[in-house]
Give the backbone structure.
Amino acid sequence: MPDTVEVGLGRSARRGYHLDDVALVPTRRTRGQAAVSIAWQIDAHGFELPLMSAPSDAIVSPTTAVEIERLGGLAVIDGEGLWSRYEDAATELASLTGDAAQLQQAYAKPVSPQLLRRRIGELRAAGVRVAVRLSPQHTAELAPHALGEGVDLLVIQGTVISAEHVRRENEPGLNLKTFIADLDVPVVVGGVTNYQTALHLMRTGAAGVIIGYGAHLGSSTDAVLGIEVPMATALIDAAAARRDYLDETGGRYVHLIAYGDLARGGDIAKALACGADAVMLGDALAAAVEAPGGGRYWDATASHPRVPRSAVMDLAFGDEDRPSLEELLVAPTSDPSGERNLFGAVRRVMGKCGYSTVKEFQKAELIVVGVR
């Protein structure tokens, strides 16, 4: 099967593969789960799970951030979300009906730098690692407040991101290379979809690069913008960029975080095998009884004032039998769908494929099982 196909006369395109298009191949050796570690270390911060939460108000509040860290992951709070816009963000969240216009109206209230600082202070007082997401458009304005209050990791994230964000023609905006060089905290940036952009972002000094834009059932980015991420190909391309950057720098390692189309344990396992060091989960956590969205899910693109690119998804709204975050992430479950005990499934498949660490698992054999 060729890597490129002819789309029309004189025009060809690369063939890309989604995670559903590939499968893992077990080796001749298997390992017990006790011999498998899925721990993740980025900069000075170690986590039991290779997990970042998506920075969505539907799943992350100051309270759920504590629970996500207790379970072994890293919660990322949206620095431009409702918690930074409203004194009583919980009441505002409870009033949301799932109507897109209402969501846009709720997010139209300006971000309060003072509230942003207060939320960070609340997280620090709770004793958890503090990770805050800012958009490229507002990083220069809001980052001094976040950094001044003492974040542990800064996440600069958009649908797609480049090493230099230009506001208008010939008007430079955020230059990530000069911005990151002045910081003492690790920075994670993204999303990206290809080798070249991943390599450029690695050269900014970022500690991690997010691959993908968080595609989920409610995403309409592919329909609205024509952008779609074949995650298996995007991760493998980014892993190739990382290898080249390792050679270029004499050993500086940049973490890859997969974000999008990750609903089941098998999806997470395949993302890690394609080169990811960790995954960013959004809608997969929205059904949790602790989730502030009450069973609904949306990402930052849903509230965009001009071009929204996500619906508000009703995943478990009103369901009295919603699972806990613990069951979704690590606890035994009776649900056979693959959507619960996500990282228990990852441990199991790593053992069945014969790998004891995520680093080793990135070398797992893949086979193509379908083409869209």
Q: What stands out?
A: The two ends are 13 Å apart (CA to CA). The longest strand covers residues 208-215. DSSP finds 13 helices and 18 strands in the chain.
